[in-house]
Amino acid sequence: MTAPEPAPLPSDDSFEELYEHGPVGQLSMTLEGAIIRVNATLLRWTGYTADQLRGARFPDLLDAGGRLFYETRFLPVLRLRGEAREVALSLETASGVRLPVIINSVLVTNQDGSPRLLRTAVLDATERQDYERQLVLARRSSEGTEGRLRVLQDASIEFARSGTEDSLTAALAAKARGALAAAGASVLLLDESGALRLAAGTDPLASAGEHRMLRPETEALSSGSVVTIASIADAAARYPELVDVLLEARVEALCVTPMLDEHGQPMGLVMCRLGRARSSTPPRSSCRRPWLSRGARSSRACACSGASSGWPCTTSSRDSPTASSSTSGWARRSRPRTAPGARLR
Amino acid sequence: MYPGRMRPPGPSPLLSRGAPVSLNARRPRPDLFSGAPISLLPSAVDDVRRRNNVTESGPATAQPMLFAHGFGCSQEMWRTVTPHFEDDHRVILFDAVGAGRSDLTAYDAGKYDSLDGYADDVLGIVEALDLHDVVFVGHSVSAMVGVLAANRAPERFAALILVGPSPRYIDEPGYTGGFSQTDIDGLLDALDANYLGWSSTMAPVIVGNADRPELGEELTSSFCSTDPAIASQFARVTFLSDNRRDLAAVTTPTLVLQCSEDPIAPLPVGHYVHEHIPGSLLVVLRATGHCPNMSDPDELAREIRSFLA
């Protein structure tokens, strides 16, 4: 029995053909990003001529976000490690449409080890990018939800664990600070005279325990709603007298959340001081459930973490009083005898 | 991702890769602010060293030079610069918390939501190592961190070397920072998109045993890796902060080193920094790009030396 003669394999021996027309874009550039050589496949994908690209700067083909990424993360890795793999970017084509790509790059060195040029393989990632974008959006959304739940969960656990007013207010200050990524947070309680006293956290405006009440605090107490200052510019427009106070304390944004008792009367504030401006005003109230836990039943201050803006979602003031008629909670004890909300109005 | 994100309870996601775990991340840390004077507590000093992965070279009694890396990488960025100074300076390098081989458990989203938190750490290092007469060399965002630190403790700093500084990346009427809010959102998207596919290049790797040479490659790859949530917040803090008003308060002698074609901190920004820091000197480098510490370390070192001379 003789084996049939195998058919001769076709040849693929032209390196030029492989380089120019292979199924991958090829690009060589200087370390400064000037394009030296491009293959035919990449020209076909992008619609440029070789003359248009030769000498052009590769980072100029990226969008601004990609350029930032390229300069701050991609290039340093390439220089330190000699290669960077599977980096997602998008290139501007001749028609102005963006081409999503995945690139692999290597650093080519001279014999003495000094860097000579960069070689980059480019893959068209159009299909993949749509899918990945959806993944990213889904992940951001789930992280937002997860983050909010976690804050609530952590808070309930902490509050349930807190046996004393001190530990409860300390937990509240810590949780509010964490939820907002705030530089500092304080819990301030109204005393009988209607003054705010520091119960937990840190307060640059307190002296001898008494908090110097400014307009955001007054407004939060009288309205029962959250008062926020998004930036120094926002403060300059709405609370010009506060600008110097904020700058002095190196605070760029502020979130003042009133705590109301079961009758809707203010008993204090949670005050978060943020070290960096937030981009916009916070989203209003998607979180209407008060923290239900021992000791905190009457408090409806709800600071859960906002999604991308970095603000809390907030309970608006007086909806749905909680079912509790507990008299043992800290809230009852710290509630002023008179109703400062009425006075402040 | 959003600034309020906190690490979920349980082991760090970085530790779930099966790699050996750095001892750095495991030791319980004493509270620095419990009231005792920091400089008298050896454990607190160790703590700062560990938190920021502080490394030192050069004679211990020489004038200290503190090098701070920028957004996107780690102290490794100074690899080819520091040899120029090790003969006659105490060279101190560190990783910002969240970057390189810093202690990720020390990351606090509230503290590091502004550059002040990073300046706290710089002053913590200065304090813990009992540094005086410090030459601070800060690249990119860390240039502004140095400004904040020097403004708070000017008596500790002899010179500020700001490499590619920008007090504000976003354009405003009357100010050219080089970027719009949309551009920065694009960077955040790029960061996100690249964490999906980053298996080898930039994925975080924690390696505990540097004595095993077969781990060398992993070690290298960890230099520029960052936890994705931290990278995202650091990007926001870096590119959305506005520290222009801090420039005028600088009293430390300052050298502004500006690259000739810097796509991150363009020339007008270098001029702005120079014009707003009283008495500062501006030198425009031949080096292009945003990282002269990597593209032309010799020129960078030469200019620093000539300023210090």
UniProtKB/TrEMBL annotation, chain A:
Span list, region Disordered: 302-345
Domain PAS: from-to ranges: 31-127
Transmembrane segments: none
Name the UniProt record assigns to this protein: PAS domain S-box protein
Start and end residues of each GAF domain: 169-274
Low complexity composition bias: residue spans: 302-328
UniProt superkingdom: Bacteria
Pfam families, per the entry: GAF (PF01590), PAS_9 (PF13426)
Residue stretches in coiled coil: none
